[in-house]
Specification:
Elements: H1 4-25, H2 29-32, H3 35-53, H4 64-80, H5 85-103, E1 124-127, E2 132-134, E3 142-147, H6 154-164, H7 167-172, E4 175-181, H8 185-195, E5 200-203, H9 208-212, E6 216-217, E7 234-235, E8 238-243, E9 248-252, H10 263-274
Parallel strand pairs: 3-4, 4-5
Antiparallel strand pairs: 1-2, 1-5, 3-8, 6-7, 8-9
Helix pairs in contact: 1-3, 1-5, 3-4, 3-5, 4-5
């Protein structure tokens, strides 16, 4: 199944790194020469832990702050050639490279559907009260449609928080903000209660709109998160701005889930189109 390997990978790789942290920490580092393993595995665990402890809306593509010590740790193990630790070191580095250049990347995203000037028509969502609402129901001069993966995604939550902090500026511009995911209604309702801003928290039931706009991410949920009530298929992070006629004036169809536009970017887009 498409993306199933990615789903399993992102759930198991951080756990593998955590196991290596404990293994290295509780061994005699000097005798066993596991310092390299400890440096590399701690860097990996630290990155994934901080995503949830102190979420950020975006990162660099290469994550140099973490990639450099992981590489140093690998080199230290290569120098010591402590088998089987050398194989563990290779797995840590390979896993990190897979995360950077395979898991984080969306290949061959369809950008034609969301080209500038295209009009979004005949799409509907449900609000937290299970009421059906259409895009045409929103009468603002502009509509900002932020499609996010779900409450489980720390980068999505940080991005939403950024936009919430700009709600006064968006209100001045008479922009309707639609925050859309395909997660269960109760999760979206909790998000709305948390932020208490005049935004529209909506659900794309069964990913119908995501499929129409070609922004569906099959098996995009980390393996095992289904136990918390999330659906396996999610929406790719996507931000669209339309004018009052639902014509697209900006679309960020990112090819990397960690690279997203800042609120200042779409404020400038709105101001530019006002002239």
């Amino acid at each position: 199944m498409k993306n199933l390997l990615k789903s399993i990978f992102i759930s198991t790789f951080p756990i593998f790194a955590l196991i290596i942290v404990f293994r290295s920490f509780f061994s005699n580092i000097i005798v066993t020469n596991t310092l390299g393993l400890l440096i590399a595995s701690i860097s990996i665990v630290l990155f994934f832990s901080l995503l949830f402890i102190k979420p950020v809306a975006r990162t660099s593509r290469i994550l140099y702050f973490y990639s450099f010590p992981i590489l140093i740790g690998f080199i230290l193990n290569i120098v010591n050639i402590n088998t089987p630790d050398i194989y563990i070191s290779i797995l840590l580095l390979a896993g990190w490279l897979l995360y950077l250049f395979w898991y984080s990347v969306f290949k061959n995203r369809d950008k034609n559907t969301l080209k500038l000037g295209n009009e979004i028509t005949n799409v509907s969502f449900e609000n937290t009260s299970n009421k059906k609402v259409f895009l045409s129901d929103f009468k603002g001069n502009y509509k900002i449609l932020l499609f996010y993966r779900g409450n489980w995604c720390p980068l999505c939550m940080a991005q939403i928080k950024e936009i919430v902090n700009q709600y006064k500026e968006l209100e001045k511009r008479n922009a309707d903000v639609l925050l859309i995911s395909s997660q269960p209604h109760s999760f979206t309702e909790n998000l709305a209660k948390k932020h208490q801003v005049p935004f529209h928290f909506l659900i794309d039931v069964k990913n119908k709109v995501a499929k129409k706009l070609h922004i569906i991410h099959e098996n995009g949920l980390p393996f095992g998160f289904q136990l918390f009530g999330y659906e396996t298929d999610v929406i790719m992070p996507t931000l669209i701005i339309t004018d009052s006629t639902n014509k697209i004036i900006f679309a960020d169809v990112t090819d990397n889930y960690r690279v997203r536009p800042e609120p200042s970017t779409f404020l400038k887009i709105i101001d530019k189109n006002k002239r």
